Amino acid sequence: MKRTLLFVTSYPPRECGIATFAQDLVNAMNKNFAGNLQIEIAALEEAGKAANVIQPPVSYTVNPFDIDNCIDFAQQINENDKIDLVCFEHEFGLYGGEYGHNLLAMLSLLDKPFIVRFHTVLPYPDLKCMKVVSLISELAAKVIVMTRSSAELLRRVYHVPSDKIVHIPHGTHAYIVEDIPTLKKQYQLEGKMVLSTFGLLSENKGIETGIRAMTEIVKQYPDAIYLVLGKTHPVVCAREGEAYRNSLEQLVKELNLENNVRFVNAYLSLKTLLDYLSLTDIYLFTSKDPHQAVSGTFVYAMSAGCAVISTSFVQATEMLEDGAGCLVDFNNPEQLASAALQLLGNPELRLQMSQSAIEKTRSSIWENVALTHMGIISEILAEDKILPNLPPPYLDHIDRMTDAFGMLQFSKHDVPDPEYGYTLDDNARALIAMCMYSTELRPSTFVNSLCRKYIDFIGYCQKPSGKFQNYVDIHGHFSPMNGEVNLEDANGRAVWALGYTMAYHQHLPFETVQEVLSRFRQCFHWIPAIRSPRAIAFIIKGLYYFLQYKSGGRAAELLENLASKLYGYYQGESDDTWHWYESSLTYGNAVLPEAMMMAYHVAGVDAWRKTAEDSLTFLCNKTFTDSHMKVISNKTWYHRDTRLPLEEGGEQSIEVAYTMLALNTFYNITKNNSYLERMRLAFSWYLGNNHLKQLVYNPLTYGCYDGLEKNNINQNQGAESTVCYLIARLLMEQWNKHKYVTTRQKNLEPARLGFN
User: Fold this and answer.
1) From the CB of residue 458, how many other CB atoms can be counted at a distance below 10 Å?
2) What are the Glycosyl transferase family domain coordinates in residue numbering (predicted)?
3) E-only strand ranges, 363-451
4) How many C-beta atoms surround the C-beta of residue 168 within 10 A?
5) What is the C-alpha to C-alpha distance for residues 715 and 722, in angstroms, rounded to an integer?
6) What is the pLDDT of residues 697-726, one digit of tens each?
7) Helices (H), 140-206
């Protein structure tokens, strides 16, 4: 059932920070939950101005300075049965009455459940302010704030119960510009060191501090320029005109800084704003208000990777710890200039701050903020969590990670890192993913070209014996690591990839198929000697898929022999409480029961099916709850004698993808719908259904983060995590097909699972 949410807020075309905030949040929620959520807007009118014409997504206007209109609006909402929940954006000054008392009158009459977000929480309220804020909080189902300090103030000063307070950081835009020099040239800033600030101008912004600091900065950096981005705040402009801007322009003339300070007097589009932030070398935040709780301009600058110098307002003290930026005193141009000169002279320090700022704000990208809001909405309405829609299966980061030779192993954030070269493992998995892409979506010359690269890389790693090397440096030399570690698992993955390619040979040229066939058959010589349980499982998978190309023969014989060996491992380790093939659950676990089920499907040995089902059930009991998947931590593994809950953190994409592959295989063979439900639940791990409640895939790059840690996400997006995410995402194409067939067979409507 689609839910309807009403936002009561200032909203564009009104020009104010909260209007922009609300629009960004609504856009993110619509993007991620379309089909499951209807959002309507009640736009707050400005004092002394006529209401704007109502047009979508605005459905209502309300005059917050007219108490009778507020009361009428509350009654109107009560009578609308379609509205399920209301979200109020609160700021002192948005609503009429002392401390916005008109809002309290409206809320006291409202029958609908509602959320209130306090954009400001005053640290030293008088009794009237405290009473209004406390009563609003008492009536609300949840109270949202955007800093930890604001949450603490609500608890300590306003006595709001902790379980009612939710901390959701201000949303941010992830935005990537790879060619900064070209961008600077586009904005007539070629060759300049750029300092900037943005936002609607008013006297409390302290822009004069930044201008005065420029007098010292230009002595060492005469080409430095300070951009003051944004028009004068409409309320200020209505009250006093352009007096403040004129005073700033006069100050620039007095200090002879006409070539070093540029005013961009416009309300910038989002793209233009993000462009300016991307080309900024240092962002200056000079607010005069130490009690300011939050600033959207501040977090947008951080998310753009700016090195930030800020006065010590509340949010800055929280965000700029641990070297993410510089804090300076209020109204102190000398200190500001000193900090800027240090950063301008130290590119490495600026880069370090930039990366730290990006890491600190990636958890608050708008997609994650929308996800958190939906979790709260589901909780208030006492219904199952609505999951985001399936993201598009784009290949941007796959392409970025692949050069002319093959797929690189690691990246620093989203930038490929050639230092560690390539692995057979990653290129084998990438080949499987490309074959899946051609099958589930559509073949293309681009996908075929990637397949060709990965096949060539696998061939490059194959020795005359038919075995494979795994590690290749950036110069194409085989690394000494190949002689230092056991390569059985890597060899097994290569067989899996080659066999899988043969099953989907129809998408490849005849010559390529013959080449893959030859390389696959060369493996028959060494396969019988394999001992590693996982290598055995990978090879069984490769043989299973090869048998779909050509049944019987040596491949079937090898598969049955390996299955007998894997079954023997299970018999040697399992007991009444431990249904597994080894004494620990480590990595790539699901491949073991999947291989046993495939072996049963080929040979029909009932004991193999029972082993497959018992071991997968055992694994799922350790890694699934009723609501989410909890991956085995790579920090501790899960040992036979473990009795404690699984450790938080150390969760990796590969475990989710391998589990989904196994569940898909089990469904295909047994037609048991419970495996489909587990597949859906497993994939939701990527969509924020995890202990951090954050996306694990990157909606900007379409890569996947390398790990879900205890308190943060590893921001690197290497080959293994990204390819495994793509495999998991492509499996959801199969899930949708399976679900459609199952639903038609039962003549039922599809279950509401949040995937469209």
Assistant:
1) 23
2) 182-359
3) 408-412, 415-423
4) 20
5) 12
6) 998 889 999 999 988 899 899 999 999 999
7) 148-156, 180-186
| Structure-token pair, residue 415 | 């930038």
689 closest CA partner among 708, 675, 704: 708
Name all domains of the chain by residue range, CATH numbers in brackets. 3-167 (3.40.50.11930), 180-363 (3.40.50.2000)
Q: What is the pLDDT of residues 236-279, one digit of tens each?
A: 888 888 999 999 999 999 999 999 999 999 888 889 999 999 99
Beta carbons within 8 Å of 415's beta carbon, 6+ residues apart? none
For residues 258 and 249, give the distance between their C-alpha atoms in angstroms, rounded to a whole number. Answer: 9
Beta bridge partners of 308: 283
- Beta-sheet pairing, 408-412 with 707-708: unpaired
Beta strands at 638-639 and 707-708: parallel, antiparallel or unpaired:
unpaired
Rounded Cα gap, residues 66 and 96, in angstroms: 7
Above 70 in pLDDT, residue 748?
no
Q: Which residues contact 218 (CB under 8 A, 6 or more apart)?
A: 224, 257, 260
> Are the C-beta atoms of 605 and 571 separated by less than 8 Å?
no
From residue 348, alpha-carbon distances to 188, 355, 487 in Å are 25, 11, 39
What's phi and psi for 332, nearest 5 deg? Answer: -130, 85
Which residue is listed with tokens 């308190």?
711
Neighbours of 37 (CB within 10 A): 20
Alpha helices in 604-652 (DSSP H): 606-623
pTM: 0.86
